[in-house]
Write a structure and sequence with these properties.
Order of helices and strands: EHEHHHEEEEEEEEEHHH
Strand content: 15-25%
CATH architecture of the largest domain: Sandwich
Distance between the termini: 44 Å
CATH class of the largest domain: Mainly Beta
CATH topology of the largest domain: Jelly Rolls
Strand order of the largest sheet: 1-8-4-11-3-2
CATH superfamily of the largest domain: q2cbj1_9rhob like domain
Number of helices: 7
Radius of gyration: 18 Å
Largest sheet: 6 strands, antiparallel
Helix content: 25-40%
Number of domains: 2
Length: about 270
């Protein structure tokens, strides 16, 4: 296991792990990746240039054993003692569960597991953001990285580490240090989805294949977040906010949302 984020080691809630999946399992998934992507329905999660096949018993019937093996491998990683201690360290002083790491794992094992096979095409890019309020842990595993350029995962620390001050999609001026994780086959990135866990998918040219996984709690108020999580911006508006902060501030959210919807309808 490798945690190669020295500047973030004590502050950013992520681990970067080489050879994340068992190599034999990774090879099986790589062989069947495109076939699995042919299943329908797909879901874009509201993101342009991205499609996801959410794995369920129904749409993955022919690969049920493969799915069980994949989820089992994810739990194998989460049971690693190093990761368990890492969770407790990240939550220390912020969450009462941190005093007993076993309680963290009791909650983790009651979460719904979500696995998606995803493809992001040329032009894919999203803003710095934090995932939905119900998300406990999320991550991705890279596949066939020779097929595209770009597509890095960029992580960012906010200047203000107070969770209540962290907008779900912040202005870039609110961010401090960043770190880029370059795509490598079978590299996994695991993020503890705290309100300061800012990240974004960098612009991609080509076809970026990855498995996305998440552990979602039934408790919407899983973390102490600020009001922006109750009414989140979509990613198109979020990108505009970060690229054109002065215009966003002058026009306001509602006008920008109307303008971006009109631009999407006209195909611009």
């Amino acid at each position: 296991m490798q945690d190669d984020l020295p500047p973030f080691k004590s502050r950013y809630p992520a681990l970067v792990v080489e050879s994340f999946l068992d190599q034999e399992l990774y090879n099986k998934l790589e062989v069947h990746f495109k076939e699995i992507l042919s299943f329908s329905p797909t879901n874009s999660f509201g993101q342009a240039h991205r499609e996801n096949v959410i794995v369920t018993e129904r749409n993955l019937e022919n690969y049920r054993g493969l799915f069980d093996e994949c989820v089992g491998d994810l739990f194998r990683f989460l049971d690693d003692e190093h990761f368990k201690k890492y969770l407790a360290r990240q939550l220390a002083g912020r969450d009462k569960r941190a005093s007993d790491s076993d309680k963290i794992y009791e909650e983790l094992r009651t979460c719904d597991v979500e696995v998606a096979f995803a493809v992001a095409g040329s032009g894919y890019e999203n803003p710095f953001h934090v995932d939905t309020a119900k998300r406990f842990i999320h991550g991705l595993i890279y596949f066939k990285t020779h097929n595209y350029t770009g597509g890095e995962l960029e992580l960012a620390l906010p200047k203000n580490q107070d969770w209540s001050e962290c907008d779900q999609i912040p202005f870039l001026s609110a961010l401090d240090e960043t770190h880029i994780v370059a795509p490598i086959d079978n590299l996994g990135v695991v993020v503890l989805s705290t309100p300061n866990s800012y990240h974004r998918g960098c612009k991609t040219e080509g076809e970026r294949l990855f498995v996305y996984f998440a552990y979602n709690s039934s408790r919407i108020g899983l973390w102490r977040k600020n009001a922006s999580f109750a009414n989140p911006l979509n990613f198109t508006v979020g990108r505009f906010k970060q690229k054109h902060p002065l215009i966003f501030g002058l026009l306001g959210r509602r006008i920008v949302e109307r303008l971006t919807r009109a631009a999407q309808r006209s195909g611009r």
